[in-house]
């Protein structure tokens, strides 16, 4: 019998964004604590009032918008760019083959367009999609590795036991629980602690709830349940004691939308208060000891 194998020569390169043996993020060789929010357009002034150094932007971001964000925030804020396209944004092709080819082209085009942008931190490849999409998500990450080895992929999962089946699809793991208005707040620690040991050295950057479910008309009472300052503080530290390597907050858009329920000035002041508290300890949180 004859067997054929393909080998690739692996050259060591100096990547812009890397992960060390402790799961910490390094940007251009310097330790970096990802700390930011899910972002929609026109809220640069709000972000500028915080210590946020990351925003997660949608695939609506054009080169001009990326440049504007970079300029307005003086290059201090990195961007996680979404590659998880949906048919809402792109018309459905006529056949499955056309659909697949169209999808691949969108991925290739976006990576090649933004891979050299100075504000890029990572590529967002999965927003709560379950393990049945393993092959699709893994292919996106492998495409990123091929076209842009300088930036990792990032996935956010719901805590329902999916993490072991999606470990091979991403470089950085995320998790969201969003308990306020749905379940007991201690579930943040309970659900995350069951998952936090599974990334096998991959960094864990979870997403903290700063919105209330009534924006989607989804609460246990049917009324607005706004996360209090103490609840947002509690959720954040429940994650941090599990040695996560950064925090993201969801979501700036929903907070603005719910201004009629809770004035954004009050909500934003609370967010600034507890995120300022966390930021003081970022060097401790990144310490190996």
Compose a concise summary of this entry:
The protein has helices at 44-47, 63-72, 96-114, 134-147, 163-166, 187-196, 229-240, 252-257, 264-279, 282-285, and strands at 17-19, 25-27, 30-32, 35-38, 54-57, 78-82, 120-127, 153-157, 172-175, 207-209, 247-250. The chain is α/β, with parallel strands linked by helices and 289 residues long.
Characterise the protein shown here:
There is one protein chain. This protein is an alpha/beta fold. It has helices spanning 44-47, 63-72, 96-114, 134-147, 163-166, 187-196, 229-240, 252-257, 264-279, 282-285; strands at 17-19, 25-27, 30-32, 35-38, 54-57, 78-82, 120-127, 153-157, 172-175, 207-209, 247-250. It contains 10 helices and 11 strands. Helix 3 (96-114) runs parallel beside helix 4 (134-147) and helix 7 runs parallel beside helix 9 (264-279). The strands form 2 sheets. The protein has an 8-stranded parallel beta sheet. Strands 1-2-3 form a 3-stranded antiparallel beta sheet, with no helix packed on it. Helix 2 (63-72) links the parallel strand 5 (54-57) and strand 6 (78-82). Residues 87-91 have low confidence and may be disordered.
């Amino acid at each position: 019998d004859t067997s054929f194998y393909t080998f690739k020569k692996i050259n060591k390169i100096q990547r812009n964004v890397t992960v060390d043996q402790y799961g910490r993020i390094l940007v251009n060789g310097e330790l970096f604590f990802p700390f930011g929010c899910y972002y929609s357009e026109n809220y640069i002034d709000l972000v500028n009032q915080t210590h946020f150094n990351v925003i997660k932007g949608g695939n609506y971001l054009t080169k001009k918008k990326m440049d504007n964000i970079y300029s307005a925030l003086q290059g201090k804020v990195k961007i996680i760019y979404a590659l998880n396209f949906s048919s809402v944004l792109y018309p459905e092709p006529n056949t499955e083959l056309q659909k697949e080819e169209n999808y691949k082209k969108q991925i290739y085009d976006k990576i090649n367009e933004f891979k050299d942008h100075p504000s890029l931190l990572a590529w967002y490849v999965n927003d709560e999609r379950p393990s049945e999409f393993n092959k699709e998500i893994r292919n996106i990450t492998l495409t990123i590795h091929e076209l842009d080895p300088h930036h990792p992929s990032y996935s956010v999962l719901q805590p329902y036991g999916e993490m072991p089946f999606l470990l091979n699809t991403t470089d950085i793991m995320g998790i969201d629980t969003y308990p306020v208005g749905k379940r007991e707040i201690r579930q943040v620690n309970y659900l995350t602690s069951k998952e936090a040991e599974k990334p096998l050295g991959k960094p864990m950057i979870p997403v903290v709830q700063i919105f209330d479910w009534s924006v989607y008309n989804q609460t246990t009472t049917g009324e607005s349940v706004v996360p209090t300052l103490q609840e947002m503080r509690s959720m954040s530290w429940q994650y941090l004691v599990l040695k996560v390597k950064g925090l993201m907050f969801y979501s700036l858009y929903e907070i603005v939308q719910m201004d009629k329920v809770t004035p954004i000035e009050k909500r934003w002041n609370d967010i600034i208060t507890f995120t300022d508290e966390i930021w003081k300890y970022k060097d401790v949180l990144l310490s190996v000891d």
